[in-house]
Please model this.
Amino acid sequence: MVTCISPLLFLSVILLPRLTGGTHEGTTAAGDIIIGGIFPFHDDVEENTTIVPPHVAKCVRFNNHALNSGLAMINTVELVNQSPSMSRLGLKLGYRIQDSCSDVTTALRAIAGLRKQGEAAGGSLPPITSIVGASYSEISIAVARQLNLELIPQISYSSTAIILSDKKRFPGFLRTVPSDLYQTKAMVRLMVDSGWSWVGLVIADNDYGRSALDALLAQTSERGICVAFKETIPNSLSDPNYSSAVTRVANVILTNPRVKVVVAFVMAPHMEFLLPKLKTLEDKQEESASGGRVWLASDGWSSTPEDVVGNLDLESIGKVVGFMFKSSNLESYRKYLQRLNETKEEERRRNPFLDEFLENGELDLEELGKKSQAQTVFSVELAVRALAQAMIGVCSSRNCTQKSIEPWEVRRALKQGMEFEQDGETYFFDKSGEINLGYVVTLWNSKEGKVQVGDVVAEYHLVNDSFTHTILPRAAYLTDLKEVVSRCSESCLPGERKQTFEGQLHTCCYKCINCTENTYSNSTDMDHCPACNTDREWSEKGSSRCTPKTLEYFSWDDGFAVVLLTLAALGILLSLLVGALFLHQCQTPVVKAAGGGLCQVILLSLIGSFISAMVFVGKPSNLTCKVRQVLFGLSFTLCVSCILVKSLKILLAFQFNPALGRVFRRLYQPLVIVCGCLTLQLLTCLLWLLLPSSPREKLTVQPTSILAECHEGSHVAFGVMLSYIAVLALVCFFCAFKGRKLPQKYNEAKFITFGMLLYLISWAIFVPVYITTSGKYLPAVEMVVILISSYGIICCHFLPKCYIILFRKEHNTKDAFIQDVHKYAFRGQDTVSVSECDLPEDKPTGLPFTIGLPRCSCPDHMYRPHPARSQQEARDT
Model:
């Protein structure tokens, strides 16, 4: 452990003389282990346009913030020396600090000087084992390459260029701040969250700016954000083209009024020139857009508003969103400045940078502390703590006072996942040599007319690329920035999509067009309109969503369906009432003449027809599709078969000659006829149901709906079923037509004729209508025809009989019947084979019921037997 520092102080004065014109050799403190430091105590070097011999350039523009960084390193070294760990090892850290003057050449010269100072002192001074710095990425890149020659580790407190994360090129470089890759990610995340898609980029022409530019272009492209312009400002303020470059950048910003968000990856001196120039040009144009502009400030200038704004106010500048590194409690550093303020006259002899600061008239070091950049001071403290912990780790296994520590040993300790503490928190470097602490986001504000860094409004987390917003009383929030619109084109609303033009440079400049039919867009600024699933959905032109297609069918609540169902129900009720009436009057002449028990079978079949009509209403299913046609086919076939029996009986009774009559009487078997006709229809229906193309449910996709309908399957089978009924109806019609002139009151021929004619006409109309009609009302067409056919039979066959039974009871007697037959006999008929009165009462007819009328005694003159027949034969007929 070094116990005497006076000779070293003497050597520092001899070896590090203070030069005139603002150029220094640096400041130093003795120790067993030396840490080097390089800080930009000046912002630039004086340019010399003439060719002169090699010389040390004069540094200009003293930087108070860099002095804070250098003093933070000195304070941390002193705190480490007071730690129990260092006391136990008997070690003391020393430092050598140099000025980079914000210039690469000067920085490299300074690094070379730091390495050779021990040799210049005859080997009495320990060599540097590590370097804290540099500040700017461009300088750190150059310094890292030089230090790598001797494996000297370097920890930067503010160099954020992405390239420095490449461990193949910079194996000994570490940093206590995140890479610009994360800073650009944070900026792009804010753009996405705020809805900004049209931004401008301003960068410094150095590695810091170019690295950030590459990252920003890649990330904005991935997120659909367009860069309206990307302008570069020369890195050196002494560049002869600097002023014209700043003017050009300002003009570009002003000529892009729709660009309300500008990302500036530059240093504070660059913005110090750009903002006033921008204000001057705006004043000349007599219009100001600054108030609505948002600056996304990189860490290079976001924490130094006092160095940037000059005489400008926030109204002239716009909103400034600053991305800064996280910081910690600076109480220890402020106490150090208080102590230093009391001994500044003594310290200024040892620290030429402090001396220049005081010579500039800045006498109060406590005020310097108040202006310090907390995050930079914190990062410097972390760097010194990390190096100290690495050295403690190496020296714990050997006596470093006897055998000096080597730089490569410190470097290895830093790379082995070593942990260190600062303010009670534990930190370590990842495999890229970075401590990823994330960022804090601030909004500049104005207090008493002075622009300052505002409170932290959000924190950016590197792991999940997200912001955590801070709740502050009476403060602006990061979410308020959403009110700023920075777009090349107006947002396309839901129902529209963006359309760009061929050859157009930016996809963010577009026009909005409506989505076509059956496509939609449900959010703003969609590049395309997704298609609806046309099997289930549809949309109109310019729709923001797909509308589910309605399932259409002839539903129970449809008004037309209600009417038809009511008619079907009335038909069933009417059939039941007629059946009850006929059953009650079964022994009367009218009922017997109408067929007696056969009427009950017809009425039962009509009830089946009405029920089948009801099945046409409601959502179709495979079962209902099969039932409705088969039920109608069988029930109406039964009805027409019974009517056919009645028609044949009329012909058999009145129209055939005696020879044929005997033949037809033997063939006239009502039960066989009815069962035979029904069986043929039953076989047809069974064959239809057993076919692969049997009736089934079918969903027909329409433009805005899905039609649930019954597909009849085999149209041939459907046609055969209907044609078979039509053939039976034609036979009935023919037979009934032949007997239309028989006795009026008890003659069924005319009614059968009318009923069958109505049936045939309605179904003849149905066929072309059914073939040419589609939609949910198609079942209603067949339903109407079924109701017409069924009501036609009721009205033609039964209602006239009911009228006689209920209102003409005098005609429903045997005498009335006989009198009607007498009238028929005297109408000029020459020959009548037999009258219905000749049919024996209750004579079996072959049916399970009786078709008979009361026997009558006809006068001899009314009955004139045919010459070819005997009276008995006539009676048998």
Observations:
- Residues 622-654 form the longest helix (33 residues).
- The two ends are 151 Å apart (CA to CA).
